[in-house]
């Protein structure tokens, strides 16, 4: 599943107003950053292979907001 999700991401988009830049911090302390055009963030996190679970939440620092896959 991981390679398919990585391929589905395509090339990283240029830095423009409609693109979000995201830095993900994993439980082991490792950080990965990428820009996204659409709702492909979960595919990116899944493709990195740093989590041993399929259930996780994404959390913003400020304002603190928890995003689950079903949101």
Automatic annotation (TrEMBL):
Domain UBX stretches: 17-70
Superkingdom of the organism of origin: Eukaryota
Protein name: UBX domain-containing protein
Organism: Brassica campestris (Field mustard)
Entry keywords, A to Z: Ubl conjugation pathway
Coiled coil regions, renumbered to chain: none
Lineage: Eukaryota, Viridiplantae, Streptophyta, Embryophyta, Tracheophyta
InterPro entries membership: Ubiquitin-like_domsf, UBX_dom, UBX_domain-protein
Gene3D superfamilies noted in UniProt: Phosphatidylinositol 3-kinase Catalytic Subunit, Chain A, domain 1
């Amino acid at each position: 599943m991981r390679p398919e999700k990585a391929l589905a991401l395509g090339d990283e988009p240029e830095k423009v107003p409609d693109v979000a830049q995201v830095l993900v911090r994993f439980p082991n302390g490792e950080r990965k950053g990428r820009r996204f055009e659409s709702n492909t963030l979960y595919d990116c996190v899944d493709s990195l292979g740093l989590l041993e679970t399929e259930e996780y939440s994404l959390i913003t620092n400020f304002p603190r907001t928890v995003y689950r896959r079903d949101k």
